[in-house]
Design a protein that fits this description.
The chain is of the alpha/beta class. Helices cover 21% and strands 34% of the residues. It contains four helices and nine strands, in the order αβαβαβββαββββ. The strands form two sheets. The chain has a six-stranded mixed beta sheet with strand order 4-3-2-5-6-7, with helices on both faces. It has a three-stranded antiparallel beta sheet with strand order 1-9-8. The two termini are 33 Å apart. The mean pLDDT is 93. The structure holds inosinic acid and magnesium ion. The site of inosinic acid has 18 residues, from β5, α4 and β8. Residues 55, 80, 87, 110-119, 142, 164-166, 170 line the site of inosinic acid (IMP).
Amino acid sequence: MAAESTQMASTEFTNPNLEVLYSEETICARIKELGEQITREYAGKDLVLVSVLKGSCIFLADLMRNIDLNLTIDFMSVSSYKDGTKSTGDVEILKDLSNPIRDKDVLLVEDIVDTGLTLSRLLEILGSRGAASIKLASFLDKPEPRIKKELKIDYTGFVVPNKFVVGYGLDAAGRYRNLPFIAIVKNPAEA
Ligand code: IMP
Ligand code: MG
């Protein structure tokens, strides 16, 4: 049989421009651990998970099913103003929370913290609304480009290198959110 005919055509999930960093199984095991930790630490509290759209939707869906507590969820959507390609830290609220967070224990659920500018601003905005507590869960932490060094991530899935990563909710110009794993884009110009 000719070599060409034995090779499978690549699909979105087997795209050769992607290098898998964390497999579906590895992610699943880590989220179970995070869920168990959050379950222990928020026992007896009035927990609201606030997902920052769109990137954190898959993390939220998996995380919440591993938190064995009476909880509610809410969503926020913000757009970060960019100065060229860099985040400026100014955020516009595109969709605000549906319910007040006064006296609630809020856990902000993010996909990735990079410079930290967007999230710092979001924490300031939510910080003025009388929540009992506000903590941060980020699926990924990319510490190298961090500008807001003081930003504390209370629950982190994985710490990633300073590379552009996609999948499991994270996108490149809207693409790749549906990958069940996290991958590094080998050649971002081709993404
Ligand atoms: P920052 O922390 O204000 O720089 O913004 C973080 C946001 O930038 C995240 O919520 C993502 O939407 C996006 N982002 C940063 N790094 C990556 C990456 O490697 N892949 C995909 N999106 C990223
Ligand atoms: Mg985000």
